[in-house]
Design a protein that fits this description.
The complex is a heterodimer of chains A (106) and B (271).
Chain A lengths: L1 H9 L4 H18 L7 H16 L7 E6 L6 E6 L26
Antiparallel strand pairs in A: 1-2
Chain B lengths: L2 E6 L7 H14 L4 E5 L7 H4 L10 H5 L5 H4 L1 E2 L6 E4 L12 H14 L2 E5 L6 H8 L3 E6 L3 H14 L4 H4 L5 E9 L1 H5 L6 H8 L3 E6 L2 H9 L3 H4 L4 H13 L7 E2 L6 H5 L2 E2 L2
Helix pairs in contact in B: 1-13
The chains are: A alpha+beta (106), B alpha/beta (271).
Family (chain B): Belongs to the ParA family. MinD subfamily.
InterPro entries (chain B): CobQ/CobB/MinD/ParA_Nub-bd_dom, MinD, MinD_FleN, P-loop_NTPase, ParA/MinD_ATPase
Keywords (chain B): ATP-binding, Cell cycle, Cell division, Nucleotide-binding, Septation
Chain lengths: 106, 271
């Protein structure tokens, strides 16, 4: 019962949440959708992956990408597990692009 | 001066067809000649909302393909003078809507009517593109709800880039019509308010149509709400919106169900 009451009193109105979510989303969509061009983050993602693949063979399953679009700033986190790279030793050079490592469209 | 108006939204089910019928009837009742053109090829419904579903012989595609002329395909409304309907085809697919064909039909309609109102299908595909292409004026129908607002934003972008006016570098007149608005829920903070939606989409407000059973009742009997229940809150909101389309400066209010003089006197001011 007490939780029921506290729920009622604590309940925040949802409209401001909707407004904020829309403002952030649309700020990004207006740049990216309209003219068919990618937005900066998608482009960064693609190019960073191209650079990494140029130097090491990357298993797509070992790449984690997190994206958080915010109002003030956004973060793009690319976490690549590079096999065989230890201190002092250079990584094995990338083998001529195995199928798996081919760039997937972002 | 004839004007081509597109009623569009991106999202489905927000009230485009209801709005096309109600605005068209209100403009016709005001003395102007109006034709409503259904662009929803394959899923036509404007005929049904207008109560003309049993009178459809030829349709827009027939006219485009030369199987019928315009005069044969136009259905005159029996209740309001100066109001006609050009139905969409139920059987053909939307590829039959050729750019040249649509341009020719719109040109011919411009010569005959003061207002050519195009009811756009949902989505951003060919039918929607064709419906908006020749527009001088756009009414963007939006529900105070996140997905509708997002889709409207996308449609506004298309209106500014892919229409004939935009390609000529001219300005297309855009108006926001908020439908299914519930003042009580907005006041409680559980529905996006008018200010929020206006703030996000930043185009001028044409009107606010309150959520009301009168709209459903009107479509049940096959009449625009401005004809079936002209004194109802949504009909008054649509009638005011039609007057604003004609350039009248009216304060935007949310009409309430008319319960008495008191309600009428204290209509809430909103924008």
């Amino acid at each position: 019962m007490s939780s029921f009451l506290s729920n009622i009193f604590k309940r925040r109105s949802s409209a401001p949440v909707a407004r904020d979510r829309l403002q952030i989303l649309l700020a990004h969509e207006r740049i990216s959708v309209g003219d068919g061009k990618d937005d900066l983050l998608a482009q960064l993602h693609r190019e960073i992956m191209e650079v990494i693949k140029r130097h090491v063979a990357v298993d797509q399953d070992k790449v984690q990408i997190k994206l958080d679009r915010g109002a003030q700033y956004s973060t793009l986190e690319i976490d690549v597990e590079v096999p065989g790279l230890t201190d002092g030793k250079p990584a094995a050079p990338a083998k001529p692009a195995p199928d798996k490592a081919k760039a997937k469209p972002a | 001066m004839s004007k081509v108006l597109v009623v569009t939204s991106g999202k489905g089910g927000v009230g485009k067809t209801t709005t096309t019928a109600a605005l068209g009837a209100a403009l016709a009742k005001g003395g102007q000649s109006v034709v409503l053109v259904d662009f929803d090829v394959g899923l036509r419904n404007l005929d049904l909302v207008m109560g003309a579903e049993r009178r459809v012989v030829f349709d827009l595609i027939n006219v485009i393909q030369g199987d019928a002329n315009l005069a044969q395909a136009l259905i005159k409304d029996k209740r309001v003078d100066n109001l006609s309907l050009l139905p969409a085809s139920q059987t053909r697919d939307k590829d039959a809507l050729t750019s040249e064909g649509v341009a020719k039909v719109i040109d011919e309609l411009r010569k005959k009517f003061d207002w050519v109102i195009c009811d756009s299908p949902a989505g951003i595909e060919r039918g929607a593109q064709m419906a908006m292409y020749h527009a001088d004026v756009a009414v963007i129908v939006t529900n105070p709800e996140v997905s509708s607002v997002r889709d409207s934003d996308r449609i506004i972008g298309m209106l500014d880039s892919t229409t004939a006016k935009a390609k000529k570098g001219e300005k297309l007149e855009k108006h926001l019509l908020i439908t299914r608005y519930d003042p009580q829920r907005a006041a409680k903070g559980d529905m996006l308010g008018t200010d929020d939606v206006l703030d996000i989409l930043s185009i001028p407000l044409l009107g606010i149509i309150p959520e009301s059973g009168d709209v459903l009742r009107a479509s049940n009997v096959g009449a625009p709400v401005t004809i079936a229940e002209p004194d109802s809150a949504p009909a008054r909101a649509y009638t005011d919106a039609a007057r604003r389309l004609n350039g009248e400066k009216l304060e935007v209010t949310i009409p309430t169900e008319r319960k008495g003089l008191f309600d009428w006197l204290f209509k809430r001011r909103v924008a």
